[in-house]
């Protein structure tokens, strides 16, 4: 007979569920635990077919339990209980990956959901090996402050740091911030470890929201400039795996997020994301990005699903080169900015000065009629920070 483990710290709720689900006693047996640690003890001693877990619990919460199951019991499907089942949360968590039940719980609905989960043909709708993206979104929902370690295959270990549900930083190899987060989100068959917050203060390198990062990572997974660049860097040995003896590994795990990495590209993307919130706060915001002289998008953000920044890079690159050519031919000198206004939107571009060591373009796309002056000032701030880092 199937055994279903329900993990919930509310004793009255556990009693209510256990009594109401007795009508299914011929189909499955209910076993209960009041926190994640008790659940682990049960899993080690009993063959469990399904786990239903709350997220907020004492001693060891549901997030830590999910991480443990991800590493040790990936074959056991899970259902998550949450008091945060708002429409916004539903949009963030894709139904084909994560199954959750909103509180207050209706026993009849829970019983039917458990029956469906135990039906092998239907189990695709439930967590088995939780994806990195969805695990991070659960942390955001629960507003946790924590350190998350992610490992996939032969890749080096990566780290995410959250402060009160806000993703502050990420690191893997020599990558930090947004670049590291995008690489880690795309990990497949990952082993996730839930860690306590490090004693050292972590600098915030990521200044964009998690949903946008996940959306960007999903686009990159289909073949992106960033993925290709990362592969080339690895082939050249620019992203070497940190190696040390057992004594040094603990120090690396605690310090990896606080290390300063003198990478020009990382500094430029940091400048972009530092002011991204200012761009997003301007009415009419649609998208923004930073591009180098080769036409590579080094960082980007969009709120419009129809705007695929990576695909626009070729068009932008050709446009910027054309502007340079025209300016040279008419003797107008180096371009400082570019503005295009159309009926449905406008594009603004700011350039690094001609005496800067490389050409960098920051651009923003807004609805027509938006505050052009404010957008230009913000783009200029990004350029100023880039050339003065």
Could you explain how this protein is built, in words?
- There is one protein chain.
- The chain has three domains: 129 residues, 3-Layer(aba) Sandwich (Rossmann fold); 126 residues, no CATH class; 124 residues, Beta-Lactamase.
- 41% of the residues lie in helices and 21% in strands.
- Helix 4 links the parallel strand 4 and strand 5.
Give the N-terminus to C-terminus distance in angstroms.
Answer: 64 Å
SSE ordering: EHEHEHEHEHHEEEEHEHHHHEEHEEEH
CATH top level class name of the largest domain: Alpha Beta
Task: Point out poorly predicted stretches.
Answer: 94-98, 121-125, 223-254
- Helical content stands at 40-55%
Fraction in beta strands: 15-25%
Q: Shape from CA axes?
A: elongated
For this structure, the CATH topology of the largest domain is Rossmann fold
- How many DSSP E strands? 15
Q: Helical stretch count?
A: 13
Q: What is the SS-derived class? A: alpha/beta
CATH architectural name of the largest domain: 3-Layer(aba) Sandwich
CATH superfamily annotation of the largest domain: Response regulator
Number of domains: 3
Largest sheet features: 5 strands, parallel
**What value does the average pLDDT take?**
78
Give the spatial strand order of the biggest sheet. Answer: 2-1-3-4-5
Radius of gyration: 24 Å
């Amino acid at each position: 007979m199937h055994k279903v483990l329900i993990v919930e710290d509310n004793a009255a709720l556990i009693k209510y569920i256990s009594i109401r689900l007795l009508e299914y006693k011929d189909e499955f047996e209910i076993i209960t635990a009041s926190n994640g640690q008790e659940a682990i003890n049960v899993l080690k001693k009993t063959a469990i077919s399904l786990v239903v877990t709350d997220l907020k619990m004492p001693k060891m919460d549901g997030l830590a339990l999910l991480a443990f199951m991800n590493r040790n019991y990936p074959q056991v499907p899970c259902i998550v209980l949450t008091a945060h089942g708002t429409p916004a949360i539903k949009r963030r968590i894709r139904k084909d990956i994560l199954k959750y039940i909103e509180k207050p719980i209706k026993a009849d609905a829970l019983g039917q959901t458990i029956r469906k989960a135990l039906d092998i043909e239907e189990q695709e709708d439930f967590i088995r090996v939780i994806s990195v993206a969805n695990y991070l979104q659960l942390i955001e929902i629960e507003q946790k402050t924590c350190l998350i370690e992610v490992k996939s295959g032969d890749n080096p270990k990566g780290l995410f740091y959250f402060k009160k549900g806000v993703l502050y930083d990420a690191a893997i190899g020599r990558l930090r911030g947004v670049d590291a987060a995008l690489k880690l989100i795309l990990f497949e068959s990952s082993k996730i470890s839930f860690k306590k917050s490090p004693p050292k203060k972590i600098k915030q390198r990521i200044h964009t929201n998690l949903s946008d990062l996940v959306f960007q990572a999903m686009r990159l997974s289909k073949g992106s400039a960033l993925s290709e660049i990362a592969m080339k860097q690895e082939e050249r040995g620019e992203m070497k795996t940190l190696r040390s003896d057992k004594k040094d590994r603990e120090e690396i795990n605690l310090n990896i997020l606080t290390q300063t990495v003198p990478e020009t590209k990382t500094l430029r993307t940091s400048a972009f994301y530092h002011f991204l919130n200012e761009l997003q706060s301007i009415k009419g915001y649609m998208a923004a990005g930073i591009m180098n002289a080769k036409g590579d998008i080094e960082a980007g953000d969009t709120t419009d699903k129809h705007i695929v920044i990576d695909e626009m890079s070729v068009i932008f690159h050709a446009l910027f080169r054309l502007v340079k050519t025209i300016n040279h031919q008419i003797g107008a000198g180096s371009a400082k900015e570019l503005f295009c206004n159309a009926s449905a939107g406008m594009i603004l571009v700011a350039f690094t000065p001609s005496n800067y060591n490389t050409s960098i373009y920051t651009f923003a796309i807004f609805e027509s009629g938006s505050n052009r002056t404010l957008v230009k000032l913000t783009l200029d701030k990004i350029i100023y920070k880039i050339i003065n880092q």
